[in-house]
Amino acid sequence: MATNTVARTLHDVGLATWFGGSLMGAVGVNGAAGAVDDPGQRARVANSGWSRWAPVQLGAIAAHGAGALALTRANRGRLASQAGVAKTSVAKGVLTVAALAATGYSALLGQRMDRAGDVPVSSGAVPNEETPNDVAGAQKQLRLLQWTVPALTGAVVVLNDVMGEQQRPTAVAKGFVRRVVPGL
């Protein structure tokens, strides 16, 4: 009997790292930058933290994606034959793509802030009255995105749990029967 331990590990550890790192960054990195005494150094501190995290985040996303593809391939029979599995899988895929887009756009906004240099801000994602307009605009978007990424990846965690429940033998049997005899 073949197992999917490696695929599940890549999938789950990658997703956990993506979720946890994004949440820690919103709370820890962006928040801690506000504790720096010099407002002109706060953006630099936040950008430095996110820049150090970026390769880990990218690796986590790649691991999650590789694991997801392997698990999809391994479960293609259930996707086709068990009622509800394909819908959950599609929803999970849509949320994952949305999380990727939000993560990528956050990175672009962070690069824009980094290129601006040492500008005064209140914290990593909050401008102050002296923040230049272009940086303030990027920060306002980042303020929303810093919570969007963990919300989306957290929703993927929930759907992953739903899919785990769909693999219980009784759920597989019921899902197959519902697919063969609609309306039951």
Can you give a write-up of this model?
This protein is 81% helix and 3% strand. The chain is built from 6 helices and 2 strands; from the N terminus they run ααααββαα. With 184 residues, the chain is mainly alpha-helical. The mean pLDDT is 93. The longest helix is centred in the N-terminal third of the chain and has 36 residues, at 39-74. β1 (121-123) and β2 (126-127) form a beta hairpin. A two-stranded antiparallel sheet has the order 1-2. It has one domain (5-174). The chain has helices at residues 5-33, 39-74, 76-81, 85-116, 133-166, 169-180, and strands at 121-123, 126-127. α1 packs antiparallel against α2 (39-74), α1 runs antiparallel to α5 and α2 runs antiparallel to α4 (85-116). It is elongated.
Q: Which structural category fits the helices and strands?
A: mainly alpha
Overall residue-averaged pLDDT value = 93
Major pleated sheet:
2 strands, antiparallel
Helical proportion?
A: over 70%
Distance between the termini: 32 Å
How many domain modules?
1
Strand tally is 2
Number of helices: 6
